Structure formats: structure tokens, C-alpha cells
Amino acid sequence: MKRALVIGYGISGKGAEKLLLKLGYEVAIAEQTVEVPAGDFEFAVLSPGIPQSHPIPTAMKARNVPVIGEAELAFRHLKGPAIGITGTNGKTTLTNFLAHALGGKALGNVGESLAAYAASDQSENLLVVELSSYQLETLQTQLLDAAILTNITPDHMDRYPSFEAYAKAKWRIIDCLKERGVCFIPKKLDDGRFSQVESIDADSYLQLSLKEGYWAKLDQETLALAFAVCQKFNLSKEAFFQALETFEKPPHRLEYVCEWNGVTFINDSKGTNPAATLYAVERIPGSILLIVGGDSKGLSFESWKEGLGKKVKAILTIGKAGLMLQEILTPYYEIHQMGTLEEATHHASQIAQVGDTVLLSPGCASFDQFKNYAHRGEVFKNSIQQLRRGI
């Protein structure tokens, strides 16, 4: 029987195992901490959270065993048509919106794993696939009819040696386009290096009258990119805005939690890099008490020194990066060093005044204190509910 090795056994690894078993392979599993498995393998499947420099994939390559990613395994067995979405920020909301607008299935870095879906009956007519830089590193199959690259700002500097290396991984989405596929990008990203690219100028491309609430769902640039893709798939303007009207944004992304004692609470736990926090602060009117911190991922926070602006009344720091952020930002802002998110939420509610907004937009990963960003967001919301109940 053919043998394949799955490296990593989280959601992606389990999905890869499911697909490989369906394809008739005997599957061996290697966790990150185990020794290099013995035996012969036709190929190895690497989970996206494990870097290619890890000892196990390195050893497989030394033994001339091909190493592919879980996404690449799935791409070889998925049925199109398909749209790929990547970028530093905004890709999950955009993926969900396009699936909603076009009647497709959201997959990849959101929802069901790619390989698990590839092992199913694949009943959907259109796939909308969110792809992280980790997944794109090993992708090469040309499955995509269209793609969107939303933006590129520094992130995951604990994995990549430079911003250029991170950006290169993001641009690999173009390599996954079919011959007549096109990747839509903001005009500011178009430097003329790539073919199969259409740059979108949001100011001139989307001259449409929008209801005020639409901007809370997708910003103007993202709306323009979404509209361009929907036009490629022959969705009318009327149907596009009807879909926008009925679309519900995923949680933890500038999510309104409540207003209590005249103070608004906003959960932006998905803001896991400095640019995302700057964006969140820009979108919220009025004075802000900002909760930040977590695992910094090796990122620079120099842009926060003056970039957060005068609307930020105070910053409450939490987690592993708390002390570092305090040192960087103390000359510019009122800083409150807190231990936990619960403590920060409670303290923010005490010092906030009527009309203020308490914003959780950490600018950091969550893994130092939480299972993931969703867990962090739920802890924030639960802390607010406990405050309201007087617990």
C-alpha cells in the first residue's frame, strides 16, 4: 500500500489524513515534538503552522521525499471554480462576504479545512478560499479562477526572516491562478511586476451611493475589490448590494458588544498585528481606551508611537508584550500595565467616561494567554457581561 506522512495533527493535519485515507494511502502521523519517522513515504504533507525549516520536513527532503502543504494536497483534488483570498488584514470578512454574495463555500483559513472538504462529496458550485502566507508557501496547483490580495503589511516576523520574504509568500497566490485567471489588488500595490493582475482604484472604481452601515461591514477599498470579483462572476450591481445588506460580519472584527453606563465596548480581537489596530482606531469615532498586547510575533510597534493619534486617551497593556509596549509607548500615551484581559477590561470600565469607547484591538497574537483570537474575544465579552451583572 502507498504510504504518506502527515506532519502536524491539528485541524489541517486531520483533514489531510482524512483525504489521504480516502485516496487509499496508509498514513503515518508525525507531531512536531516526535523524532523523524522511519520508513519509506511517497510524499509528506506539512501542516501550515509548521515551518519548512522544522527538522522533520528537513529530514524528509534530505531523503528525497517530496514535501507538500495541506493546501496543495487539497488543491490537487478540489473541483472548481474557485476564488482565492489573501492579505494581511481583512481576508476572513471578505471571504465570508463573497461566499454569501456568490452562493459559494468558504474554506481554507476559515471554516472547514481544505483537505477535509476535498475528502467530502464537494457539492458546492463555487469555492471561496482564504489562504494564509503559511499555506501559500507550498502551493503551486493552478486552481483559482480569480484571486484578491487585500493588502500587505508586516506580520509573522517570528516566522519570516524579513518583510520581503513574507510579502513574497503572499504574492504566490498569482502562481495559483488558471491561465485566464486574474488577481485583483489595490492600486497602491501594483508596481508592474506581475501579469494576471488588475489593480483597482477604490475612489474611481466604486462611485456608488452607499448606506452608512455598509462601511461597518467592508471598507471602501475592500468593497471595490469584492465588487470587481463579483462582476467577473456576473453578479449584478443590484444583487451585490442586496448581499451586502443581508451580510453579517464574522465576530471579533470591530464587533459591537454593548453600551453600558454611556461607554461603548468594541471587540476587535482579530486585530493581531499593528496595522490592524491602527485601522480599528481610525474607524472608531470619539475617545478610545485601547487594550493591546499578547504575543508580538517579533513585529515592530514603532508605527503606534504617533500613529494611534490623539483620540486614544489611554492604553492598557496585557500579556507577553505588555512590558515592551509600555516602554515604547509611555512617552506618547497614558499607559496602564495590566496582567490579564479581565483586569484590563475592568480597569478600562472604571476610568472610561460617558461617550468613550473601550476597544480591544491587541495588535498581537493571542497564544500567550488564550487558545486563539476567538477565545480572547469571548473572554473580553464575558468580562463585560460580568461587569454589567456586578460580578
UniProtKB/TrEMBL annotation:
Biological processes annotated in GO: cell division; cell wall organization; peptidoglycan biosynthetic process; regulation of cell shape
Enzyme class: ligase
Main subcellular location of this protein, as a coarse class: cytoplasm
Catalytic activity: UDP-N-acetyl-alpha-D-muramoyl-L-alanine + D-glutamate + ATP = UDP-N-acetyl-alpha-D-muramoyl-L-alanyl-D-glutamate + ADP + phosphate + H(+)
Residue span, Mur ligase C-terminal domain: 252-362
Residue ranges the record marks as coiled coil: none
Molecular function GO terms recorded: ATP binding; UDP-N-acetylmuramoylalanine-D-glutamate ligase activity
Residues the record lists as binding ATP: G87, T88, N89, G90, K91, T92, T93
Pathway: Cell wall biogenesis; peptidoglycan biosynthesis
Localization per Swiss-Prot or TrEMBL: Cytoplasm
Residue ranges of every copy of the Mur ligase central domain listed in the record: 85-192
EC code: 6.3.2.9
Keywords, comma-separated and alphabetical: ATP-binding, Cell cycle, Cell division, Cell shape, Cell wall biogenesis/degradation, Cytoplasm, Ligase, Nucleotide-binding, Peptidoglycan synthesis
Gene Ontology annotations for the cellular component aspect, listed alphabetically: cytoplasm
KW Membrane (keyword) present: no
Keyword Transferase in record: no
Role summary: Cell wall formation. Catalyzes the addition of glutamate to the nucleotide precursor UDP-N-acetylmuramoyl-L-alanine (UMA).
Similarity comment: Belongs to the MurCDEF family.
Protein name: UDP-N-acetylmuramoylalanine--D-glutamate ligase
Lineage: Bacteria, Pseudomonadati, Chlamydiota, Chlamydiia, Parachlamydiales
